[in-house]
Amino acid sequence: MPNPYGRFTVCGSSAVEELLTALATDAARMAEAALSPSEYRALVIIGGYGRGEGGVEIVSGQERPHNNIDFLLIAETSRPAKIAALRHRLLEAFQPVMQQYDLEIDLSVIGIWQLRFSPTLIIWYETRFGHKTILGDTNFVPSLSQFRLDRIPCRDALRLLVNRGTLLVINDQLLDKNTDPSSQKRRITRNIMKAIIGYGDALLFVLGDYDWSYVERKRRMKLRHELPPEFRQWYDRAAEFRFCPNYEYYDSWDLASWMENLRDILEPIHRQCEEKRLGLDHLAWEEYPAHASAHALLDEPMSIRAWARKSANFCKKAQCPQDLGIRGRMGYRALGVRGRYPIVFPAIAYRMKEARLREFAAKVLNSDDTTYKALREAYLRFWCEEVDINAYSSLRIWQPPNFQENGV
Question: What number does CATH give the domain 14-150?
């Protein structure tokens, strides 16, 4: 019987492909039983397995999917309460599937009109071209023609780089706080590979060479001979790791030295991305807060959505650092709280010693201490509270005061 979904992995055997096909079929059956057809437009698998490029790991001599399986339900409603109820009901329906296959399912639910009018971001561009519809309208996701590569704002590539780069900041925290770094080696190795890919993907984007396919991006990076050879080699390794991870190969590596070496490799890549985005021939990190803040004021000049966001942020109270200049201070306010964390990221990620950068980071993060460790903890608290609350689960070694498992 032919596979109705096509391949799920790049390097998986027929056995793991059959397992994933059976999981998708059973998940579709469970969803169909749990939901009324009037409640959804489509249920799709996204992420690596949706693209047909998911990872496969050898566990006890057998191939197993390396990652959780990402599902997206496109609901007919956009009401938050109904969205939450649909997600709860579908997760309950998926429990037998997860138990049977010993795999985790990550489920997101979005309303159809919310999706139609979502900003054009990398995630939606990739979803449009790299997904598998297992239930519902197979033509709906491909019909979202507004999610084109040429419409994605450059700030989304910066968001990608900083989000993945923050995994390295988390690694620093894990190494610093854990008395037995070897217990974190798998997590740290995985974070490193995801970060390298994030930097490379952001660079391909600003160079106009991005693609929704992991395999194609890997191929294109190999052809960028003008880029540093060491970085291209690491990107290739990380891409291979995504497809076929081999943790044992890195077991003997010294984690602290590895992280230090990566900082030296990745910092110039970040700077190159921001030079392209900001239209600068050369970027000095000391001047980065002023340049990035000023650029934010007039970024995406033709986007009504962007101007609405900036206007709303501008109306909120904010103490602006005085050394940004008039346009920089206006841009700083327009960025809003969540828009400012990428500007302080370099000072934290690359352990910069410049006093101006540390003082700027301390102001943004509301820290009275400009030492590296204090700024790192302030950044991660900010990250967990404002950007990714799920990051608390990856930082079990410390929790801020009053933290509870269900939120802050």
Answer: 3.30.70.1350
CB 93 within 8 A of CB 30: yes
Q: What's the rounded Cα separation, in Å, for the pair 56 and 35?
A: 31
How many CA atoms does the CB half-sphere of 373 hold within 13 Å? 5
Q: What is the H or E stretch that residue 131 is in?
A: none
The mean pLDDT value for 23-36 works out to: 97
Domain boundaries, the chain: 14-150, 154-283, 287-408
Give the CA distances from residue 301 to residues 116, 307, 310, in Å, rounded to whole numbers and listed in that order.
22, 8, 11
C-alpha to C-alpha distance for 185 and 178, rounded to whole angstroms: 11
CA angle 161, 164, 166 (to 5 degrees): 105
pLDDT digits (tens, 9 = 90+) for 353-405: 999 999 999 999 999 999 999 999 999 999 888 777 555 555 554 454 443 33
Q: Provide the 10 A C-beta neighbour count for residue 200.
A: 27
**pLDDT tens digits along 252-270:** 999 999 999 999 999 999 9
